[in-house]
Specification:
The complex is a heterotetramer, with 2 copies of chain A and 2 copies of chain B.
Chain A: E1 2-7, H1 9-15, E2 19-23, H2 30-38, E3 51-54, E4 57-58, E5 70-74
Parallel strand pairs in A: 1-5
Antiparallel strand pairs in A: 1-2, 3-4, 3-5
Chain B: E1 2-6, H1 12-19, E2 26-33, E3 37-38, E4 41-50, H2 52-70, E5 75-80, E6 82-85, E7 89-97, H3 100-117, E8 120-126, E9 131-133
Parallel strand pairs in B: 1-5
Antiparallel strand pairs in B: 2-7, 3-4, 4-6, 4-8, 5-7, 8-9
Helix pairs in contact in B: 2-3
Classes of the chains: A alpha+beta, B alpha+beta.
Chain lengths: 80, 146, 146, 80
């Protein structure tokens, strides 16, 4: 299956991209996506367990993904 | 109740009007503005970036929670994104309520949840020409956080 | 810092501007309005009376205390007197500060001290044509107080 | 000496006046003025120790007055 990872702000700068498509085995979880991102050049700067949202909603690392899911890796937020 | 992520000037007076109701006796308006300094560095402007679809959803959730918790539908929030200069309004929260104590509490709830959950990031621009993403989880060197 | 007892419409937007400063990141504006009900009775308007010389002095004292206690000079307060109809603004308090938490606290301090100390009285007018001086020390029969 | 007592709101309504001049002996206090007001028709409705201000400042009942003082008897305030 295919999922899209989204990167923002400092994460997008360091990894030099805003989205990445990954092909993953069925049963893959949020943490699998984080691991794949961390394996990319610059990915080591990600914290061990970054905030993640799946389809616009905060999600835990063990959430199992479905094909087409949008997995956003969220840097520390700074709204207001 | 209305929430929006906007990319134009926030009309705080309009938000006040919107939160007013004849059965309310109090309106609390919180306005966040771009400060000219942060952690001891001189700031000239801020770029606000956001995860648009999620930010809109999360902001609406925060206000729906506040509406239920504090029993008022008179909550109006706008968060501006894009490039803002010093003194400009980045955020306005208007809460109307029959009781003033509850209006203050609801206002605080909304701003604290925004600071914690809203997927918005700011890149500060400094007088020396450099710019940097703000990480509120980093230890502050100098100066208060708004 | 500025305080005034006024007998004309309060321009809340002007107060917001006045409390803004480039080194501030937060402004909290409290607006008190005339409610259409109180203790279960339907209100059509309120006459605000005051002990003019003392009210001006006391309001200035309250704000000077808040300025010192919360370390900001960006406090602007206007209290309107005379006859107000439902929905009109009787009081506006604008507080600007570098930190949002302190802006909220200073705002609360000012309104609570006003409620306790400012020599202003209100006579409510009801839909049945009667009118009555409000005594906040009396036990409320029904409904919240703003 | 002469002092002026001021009445407001419900107190002014019940006593049907807004100010009263009293001639008092030297050494008279705030509470002497309150007693004099309470002795007037309608004055019984005053609380035992109403809030009082002397020359625009809240003052205790035992404050000694001077000639020309303005003694305001303050009903429960209701600003905001």
């Amino acid at each position: 299956m295919t999922v899209t990872a989204l990167l923002f702000a400092s994460y997008a700068d360091v990894l030099q991209r805003e989205s990445i498509e990954f092909t993953l085995p069925h049963g893959a979880t949020v943490s699998d996506v984080v691991s794949r991102v961390r394996a990319l050049p610059g990915g080591a700067m990600l914290p061990p367990t970054p905030l993640v949202a799946v389809n616009h909603e905060y999600a835990r690392a063990d959430v199992v993904l479905s094909s087409g899911d949008e997995v956003a890796i969220i840097p520390p937020v700074a709204g207001g | 109740m209305r929430t929006a992520i906007v990319d134009d000037v926030i009309d705080t007076a309009a938000l006040l009007d919107e939160a007013q109701r004849d059965s309310n006796g109090a309106i609390v308006l919180f306005v966040g503005t771009v400060r000219d300094n942060n952690s001891g560095r001189l700031v000239t402007g801020i770029d606000y970036a956001c995860y648009g679809a999620m930010a809109a959803r999360e902001l609406a959730s925060i206000c729906a929670e506040a509406a239920e918790r504090f029993a008022t539908v008179d909550i109006v929030v706008e968060h501006r994104i894009g490039h803002l200069t010093v003194g400009e309004t980045s955020l306005a929260i208007a809460v109307g309520h029959a009781r003033r104590a509850t209006a203050y509490e609801a206002s605080r709830y909304v701003i604290e949840q925004i600071k914690r959950r809203l997927p918005i990031w700011k890149r500060e621009e400094y007088t020396d020409g450099t710019r940097e993403w703000v990480d509120p989880t980093a230890v502050a060197v100098v100066g208060p956080e708004s």
